[in-house]
């Protein structure tokens, strides 16, 4: 499973709560290995590991799992205690209801509910009254957290039917499909995730032993953006990624053949998903380049060759187009 890089928007948004409280966030950025200079470029990206370290540092820095966005802080340890209650439930529906009942004990918590439809689809609805969250950062983080925690509880990825957001599409709207694995709907009546009701009846397969191991990785498993593999674009990205790992550069015709479709059909279906073969390939190359540069264990020349560029100068130009910065700005986490 190929982890994607994260748009710098999410880093800036995550810091807003701490900054609003007058806190100096420079030490948080240092702990995450993120150069402050990257915050000024809207095209900049960070790795999933950097983003995870940023959120963990904010939790510790503020002693607040809501990261400064709520009227009341959610002290560190609140989420793990809720998880401990949830793993002792029979099925996912019971676990979710118990988890939400626990959070209702604390003033200033989000309002969460499940609404069951007649079509076998349920809506996980989230209301954030009392939260100062202009970027909708915490709103979207909580949706993602509950969805992925639910999938972990039952040991089965829960595919989403749709993701509704009660606000206009933002400038980084392209990220939503990557985060939630389904087409987003903006200007909706409410903010909610929809999925098949049958998942609520699936048994909880985790226990206290697996929970301890899971929480040691938090928030990596809960917050890192991953390929869901549901749509065609994710399948194309996976084939391209495996090809690059094996020293190949699969063409659109070769990828189409592996998917048992024609190249025109592949292009047409990608267009219907709002993307293209070129876009998928460019995003993959961008993410692999950023990840390698942050790790700092590969020369720019070797990286350019591995990604299929004929010379380093061509890679430099492409990287500047992708991120707005030179490869050197990302070397070793951009902190050199």
From TrEMBL:
GO molecular function, one term: DNA-binding transcription factor activity
TM spans (from-to): none
Domain of life: Bacteria
Keyword Signal: no
Keywords: DNA-binding, Transcription, Transcription regulation
Domain HTH araC/xylS-type: 234-333
GO CC terms of this entry: cytosol
Pfam families to which the protein is assigned, alphabetical: Arabinose_bd (PF12625), HTH_18 (PF12833)
InterPro entries named among the record's database cross-references: AraC-type_N, Homeodomain-like_sf, HTH_AraC, Tscrpt_reg_AraC-type_HTH
Protein name per Swiss-Prot or TrEMBL: AraC family transcriptional regulator
């Amino acid at each position: 499973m190929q982890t994607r890089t994260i748009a710098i928007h999410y880093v800036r948004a995550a810091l807003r709560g701490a900054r609003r409280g007058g806190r100096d966030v420079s030490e948080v950025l240092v702990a995450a290995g993120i150069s402050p200079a990257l915050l000024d470029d809207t095209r900049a990206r960070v790795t999933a590991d950097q983003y995870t370290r940023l959120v963990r540092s904010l939790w510790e820095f503020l002693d607040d799992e809501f990261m400064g966005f709520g009227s009341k802080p959610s002290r560190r340890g609140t989420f793990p205690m809720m998880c401990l209650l949830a793993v002792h439930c029979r099925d996912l529906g019971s676990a979710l209801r118990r988890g939400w009942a626990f959070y209702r004990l604390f003033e200033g918590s989000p309002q969460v509910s499940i609404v069951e439809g007649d079509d076998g689809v349920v809506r996980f609805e989230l209301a954030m009254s009392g939260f100062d969250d202009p970027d909708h950062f915490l709103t979207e983080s909580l949706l993602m957290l509950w969805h992925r925690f639910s999938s972990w509880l039952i040991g089965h990825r829960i595919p989403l039917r749709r993701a509704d957001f009660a606000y206009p599409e933002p400038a980084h709207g392209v990220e939503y499909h990557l985060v939630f694995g389904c087409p987003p709907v903006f200007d909706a009546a409410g903010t909610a995730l929809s999925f098949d009701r049958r998942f609520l009846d699936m048994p909880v397969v985790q226990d206290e032993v697996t929970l301890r191991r899971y929480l040691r990785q938090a928030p990596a498993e809960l917050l890192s953006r991953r390929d869901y593999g549901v749509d065609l674009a994710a399948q194309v990205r996976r084939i391209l990624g495996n090809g690059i790992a094996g020293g190949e550069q699969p063409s659109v015709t070769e990828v189409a053949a592996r998917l048992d479709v024609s190249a025109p059909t592949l292009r047409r279906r990608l267009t219907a998903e709002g993307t293209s073969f070129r876009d998928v390939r460019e995003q993959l190359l961008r993410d692999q380049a950023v990840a390698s540069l942050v790790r700092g264990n590969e020369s720019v020349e070797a990286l350019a060759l591995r990604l299929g560029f004929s010379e380093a100068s061509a890679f430099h130009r492409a990287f500047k187009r992708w991120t707005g910065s030179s490869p050197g700005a990302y070397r070793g986490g951009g902190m050199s």
